[in-house]
Design brief:
alpha/beta, D-Maltodextrin-Binding Protein, domain 2, 2 domains, 18 helices, 9 strands, 39% helix
């Protein structure tokens, strides 16, 4: 059974998060310096990869990090001034009778929206058609439709860490600042200032455009099967070396138990590798757009990835995305799985998981030079090609509302972009994950750092280096594969910046 969280315990954790999360600036970024808040707000995120503070050593997750300097953005992501005129009135029924199409993702966050869609329809009178494909298929659909100049959807849930720069550069999602300052279009309870500084920074472009509503912030962590660790007297790992040693000790294919599982599929695997590289205090692409992908740190990290995935992972791991890795861990077939904290909910589902109540949620272990928790972000955007942008805005407000994000947090979907979720009474009562999961979210927020570069050709980057990593799982030389991938991707990156 999951340990229940009392309101007092939860408020203590919220206080810790508010004190520590906003203190650490993210490298490879041009994000606003976070203002201290009383509620949990993860670290600021990159707005563009052209300016960044010098790397600093990450603190241990049990203590709040010392503040670091972040460059000031061109325009701070604050809400536009509201200009009220006599007779201003907001009505959720303003677009009653309209129908819109929402493109979501098949994950816990998307499930919460889809499961509560009747609430939105009853509130607004707007009918919503929901498409919820798997993550990779959804991203392909987005790229094709936006590039064509027409979209079948009006509002979309998308990944900042993959699509922010591309969408921003092409203005594929609309700037919502006019809506935010219009009291007839923004609900009085919406409260833009309730969003964390990290969420605001993800959603804001360097020129000040706010082209999405932040929805979720997620961190990399290490899921451990406590039952397997306890059976062999192995301590939960705090460092990369301990993680590799634990994988070796717990690996037992004769019993269908494998020491480690992670993303091995081309493109998806680049995320895991980039997370791991943070342990060497390295960004794969730095603020000057230099590729840090052939140096000794990158090679050493790649060899560790190769060792874990080639020698201690299940057969066929080269075809695993996060969902296949999640399934293997949920079935008790893996001792460890490294991925986002937002994938916890299915692990605590008694109907589908064999590890319910057996999971240890471990902050991403410390590497040879630093300890960071790889960070991602998602949000709701309105298609610039939509002819129903007003109704789509209403859906965006609802999908990023205090109520929906509190439900997502209670379901274990990850660290949400609103501060208020951490003191929401309903979330406390209905929390479906253990308190240890909350502790990991709090600790990870103190050392969050974006791993993937915020560049236009991020998909090409993930594909090209994904092939190299996949080849390594098959036994290819790490240094050779990294050089080939770097030589192939460098001209693509350079061309994208000149366009």
């Amino acid at each position: 059974m999951s340990e229940k969280l009392t309101r007092r315990d939860f408020l203590k954790r919220a206080a810790l998060l508010g004190a520590g999360v906003t203190g650490t600036a993210i490298l490879n970024a041009c994000a606003p310096t976070p203002e201290p808040t009383k509620a949990p707000a993860p670290t600021a995120v990159p707005a563009q990869p052209t300016k960044a503070p010098e790397p600093t050593k990450a603190p241990a997750p049990t203590t709040a990090p010392a503040p670091t300097k972040a460059p000031a953005p061109t325009t701070a992501p604050t809400a536009p001034a509201v200009v009220k005129t006599p007779g201003d009135a907001f009505s959720w029924q303003r677009f009653k009778g309209e129908k819109i199409e929402a493109l979501l993702i098949k994950n816990t966050q998307g499930d919460i929206m889809a499961q509560n869609i009747k609430e939105f329809q009853d509130l607004t009178g707007i009918t919503v058609g929901v498409d919820q494909p798997a993550e990779q298929q959804q991203r392909q659909k987005l790229a094709v439709e936006f590039a064509s100049g027409a979209t079948s959807f009006d509002v979309v849930y998308y990944s900042f860490h993959v699509q922010k720069r591309l969408f921003g550069k092409n203005k594929w999602v609309m700037d919502v600042r006019d809506y935010l300052k219009d009291p007839t279009m923004t609900a009085p309870e919406f409260d833009w200032n309730d969003f964390s500084e990290a969420g605001k920074a993800w959603a804001t472009e360097p020129d000040g455009r706010i082209d999405a509503l932040p929805n979720k912030i997620d961190y990399c962590n290490l899921y451990c099967n406590k039952e397997l660790f306890d059976a062999k007297g192995v301590a939960l790992p705090k460092t990369y070396d301990e993680m590799v040693a634990a994988a070796q000790k717990l690996h037992d294919p004769s019993k269908n138990v494998f020491g480690f599982v992670g993303r091995g599929l081309k493109n998806a695997n680049t995320m895991l590798w980039a997370w791991m590289l943070l342990g060497w205090d390295i960004d794969v692409i730095d603020s000057k757009l230099n590729l840090n992908t052939t140096g000794p740190e990158a090679v050493e990290c790649s060899k560790m990835y190769q060792n874990l995935m080639k020698n201690y992972a299940p057969p066929g791991v080269g075809g695993f995305n996060w969902n296949e890795a999640q399934s293997a861990f949920a079935l008790g077939q893996a001792a460890m799985w490294m991925d986002g904290v937002g994938f916890a909910a299915p692990l605590e589902d008694a109907k589908s998981s064999k590890v319910k109540g057996k999971v240890a949620y471990v902050v991403q272990p410390k590497g040879p030079k630093a300890q960071w928790a790889g960070m991602t972000g998602d949000g709701m955007g309105i298609s610039s090609f939509s002819k129903k942008q007003g109704a789509a805005w209403y859906f965006s407000m609802w999908a990023a509302s205090k109520s929906i994000l509190a439900k997502s947090f209670a379901a274990g979907s990850g660290s949400q972009a609103r501060n208020s979720v951490y003191t929401n009474a309903e979330a406390l009562k209905s929390l479906t994950v253990p308190t240890a999961w909350v502790d990991t979210v709090v600790a990870s927020g103190k050392i969050g750092r974006a791993a993937l570069p915020i560049i236009v050709p991020v998909t090409e980057f993930r594909d090209i280096f994904g092939v190299a990593l996949n080849n390594m799982i098959g036994g290819a030389d790490a240094a050779t594969e990294l050089k080939k991938a770097t030589d192939e991707f460098k001209p693509i990156l350079e061309k994208s910046e000149k366009a």
